[in-house]
Amino acid sequence: MSPTSSPRRRTLTAGALAATAALVAAGVQVATATAVPGRDTAIAKARANVSHNAELFGFGAGQALQVKDVVIDADGSQHVRFDRTYQGLPVVGGDLVVHQDAHGRLKDSSRAKGHNPAVRSTVPSVPAQTTAAKALAAAPGISSATSQPELVVWAADGTARLAWQTTVSGLGKQGQPSGRVIVTDATTGEEIEHFDAEHEASGTGRSEYTGDITISTTLQSNGQYALIDPVRGHTTKDAHNISSSAVKASSGTLFTDADNIWGDGRKFSSDRATAAVDAHANTAWTYDYYKNTFGRNGIKNDGKGATVFVHVGTNWDNAQWSDACFCMMTGDGDGTTDPEQVDLDTMGHEMTHGVTSATANLRYSGESGGLNESTSDIFGTMVEWYANNSVDTPDYLFSDQSTPPWLRRFDKPSLDGRSADCWSKKVGQLDVHNSSGVGNHWFFLASEGSGSRTINGVTYNSPTCNGSTVTGIGNQKIAKIWYRALTVYMTSTTDYKGARTASLNAAKDLYGAGSTEYNAVAAAWSAVSVS
Ligand SMILES: [Zn+2]
How far is the CA of 327 from the centre of ligand 1 (A)? Predict the structure, then answer.
């Protein structure tokens, strides 16, 4: 059966992107408070208990309590948590919990150190602007940062001081949203403490294609988890169905969640986070593949993470890499047979376009365009072999999950009805997604060899164009050779003949001239009519 979906493309030009005026309203999270029987009564009783025991709680003039949480046990015991203010300013370290019996009688209390928050002066001698500048200087790992000072009573060590609590927000080393909080004495300007505004977390993702998985997320200072991978630096956002041509790095909204459990594991899901789980995790797999296999530090080898968009366009059955916004975009599929385009080999393919741009920069037309596409198919597939997921078993079928049964295949590319198995003078005139067939066919022959075989339950039958029999040396070695050829020897105008030379140079560097590996590379090229 011939797949009918449109071929994977990528952005060709940076082009002037139209400003997106029609932004979809940001998804405001409405906290649906669970009605707890007796909650209001418990709070009222707790307030009365604090007032009646003012000395115990250090509760004096100018103070107020703000309810933060209420826990009511099965036996009716109540635990009411408060934050404290002094003259309208938040008291850092002034929080307390009132423990009451089922009737609201005080049983016990838990109190943070700052229960005597009275400070002499409320007029800071160090102005906010000075404080903000100082805080920015104290956050060296964070670039393009802004700062927001807030006047507080800082009493976390038991001694109350008027202080500026300044949150510096910007981008971390890998380009991910990052923040730091710096607290300075409002009278002397001295730093009291600093800490990261976010914390690395490990979320549970109910993925669309690979079951329940663990994903790297970030706990933000507002208590919400976000799809920011703090290790690899990528951020996953909802494009809210704006078209791919309108997407910029700043488009869309970051995925956030209260309990760090994401998605519902279904295709075509109404839960918008489901596709985001796959996209977020598969970006991490691709990053890890390049890092752990080749020592490559991110797509551009500069340690920076990309922005990943899901829900791009309407029924957009495609995915795309854009150098212009250093982002990747994924569509929701065709709405019937093809689900969201966030499966592993598809995402590995698109991010590999970024790697190619940053290295050989193979021109996206003619034979070099076919080699560009083939490189993305090869490494997209190798990411799948690297992940070795039991649900998405490694294969030589491309985009088999999001474009079933597959969009392209390596053993005999012409089975898609369009791609070339063998080089000819006319190959360069084909669409780049079809001239790639020669490179993909070479990759299969060099990795697995010619003829019929079954691998992980899939049967392949790879012919040769010259009637030879080719013995493969395994896809790990061939991928290693191809990566070196791409990053060391190929240039923007490399054609298939040049690719043969580049890969033989790479094989010679890695395994020696005349080695088994070198000979297998040469034999496989000859077998696809590249000599
Ligand atoms: Zn592509």
Answer: 14
Distance 509 CA to ligand 1 centre (A): 28
For the stretch 293-337, pLDDT in tens is 999 999 999 999 999 999 999 999 999 999 999 999 999 999 889
Helix (H) or strand (E) holding 517: helix 516-527
433 in active site = yes
Question: What is the structure's pLDDT at 123?
Answer: 62
Q: Mean pLDDT throughout 71-98?
A: 92
Q: Does the annotation count 384 as an active-site position?
A: no
Nearest 5 degrees, angle CA 441-CA 443-CA 448? 95
Cβ atoms of 188 and 182 within 8 Å: the answer is no
pLDDT single digits (tens) 259-301: 999 999 999 999 999 999 999 999 999 999 999 999 999 999 9
382 CA from centroid of ligand 1 (Å): 15
- Among 280, 433, 441, 517, the one annotated catalytic: 433
Q: How far is it, in rounded angstroms, from Cα 370 to Cα 428?
A: 8
Residue 10 CA to ligand 1 centre (angstroms): 6
Q: Which of 208, 350, 384, 448 is catalytic?
A: 350
The Å distance, Cα 518 to ligand 1 centre, comes to 28
User: Taking the CB of residue 214, how many other CB atoms lie within 10 A of it?
Assistant: 11
19-75, pLDDT tens digit by residue?
Answer: 222 222 222 233 334 455 689 999 999 999 999 999 999 898 889 999 988 889 999
Q: Which residues contact 524 (CB under 8 A, 6 or more apart)?
A: 442, 445, 446, 470, 472
Q: Has this prediction a pTM greater than 0.85?
A: no
